Amino acid sequence: MSRVAITGAAGYVGSAISRGFRAVGWEVTELGRRTGYELAKEVKIDWTGVDALVHCAWDFGLKQWEQIERVNVKGSVRVMEAARTAGVRSGVFISSLSCFPGCRSMYGGGKLEVEAEAARLGFASVRPGLVYGERPGGMMGALEKAVKGSPVVPLIGDGSQPQYPVHEEDLAALVVELCEMDCVSPEPIAAAGGEGISFRELLRRIGARHGRKPVFVPVPWVIILAGLKAMEGLGLNPPFRSDSLTGFVFQNPAPDFSVARGIVEFRRFE
User: Fold this and answer.
1) Exposed (0-12), middle (13-18) or buried (19+): which is 76, by Cβ within 10 Å?
2) Class for the domain spanning 3-131+165-193+252-261
3) pLDDT tens-digit profile of 141-169?
4) What average pLDDT does the structure give for the chain?
5) 201 exposed, middle or buried (CB, 10 Å; 0-12, 13-18, 19+)?
6) Among the listed residues 14, 13, 5, the one whose alpha carbon sits nearest the alpha carbon of residue 53
7) Integer angstrom CA distances of residue 185 from 94, 127, 170, 246
8) Where along the chain do its domains lie?
9) What CA–CA distance (Å, rounded) separates 199 from 163?
10) How many CB atoms lie within 10 A of CB 94?
11) Taking the model in full, what pTM does it have?
12) Whole-angstrom Cα distance, residue 15 to residue 8?
């Protein structure tokens, strides 16, 4: 029986990937975010018997680049370096479609730095689209909550921004395959199913799933950004971070899903 260590296993994406490994017979060692990032303080983790590492952990609460670099970037590198030094044969870093050369968000920039280190260490990087499932968390969970919570839904601009949903089970299947293949991809692997749909259409389909027909109110993204930054400046925690909005507005203009779709069959978001 093979064993995989998963950081951030208590989170939405990490828990879905854990279920995917268990479903095909892997033994899973779950490392929470705190456990994984203790490596930044030179605390040792027992890698005995671990064949693969999947690094999902990321602290989304950090708002300053210095903090992101110290905790998320350097912490991630320490985790992967420790695994490689211990002889862990394969690994996957869970990145994001918000990450690409020229991205403007701090989140994407941090992920981009970790992708480079993952490649140096011989691990693959996967850039999932918008992850969803029967009980979604993360960004999709927040969008579902917004649509179900009010008949009127603010729309970022005209809502034409393309979205690339990926089912949690399909993402997990891809990660499992990469670990079983001992894949060392020189380039990050973008993962999503079907063609992109507009943000407006995504919200409409979410509403239809819950028997709702949301009324959209377009709002210029610069106004939303100013409001989010004002809330953050007051020490409040808005439902979406200003940095997330920056990544949403300035997206990768042409993500390439061909590699992932050659490994796993992805379902369409209906």
Assistant:
1) buried
2) alpha beta
3) 989 998 998 899 999 999 999 999 999 99
4) 90
5) middle
6) 5
7) 13, 12, 19, 28
8) 3-131+165-193+252-261
9) 6
10) 26
11) 0.93
12) 8
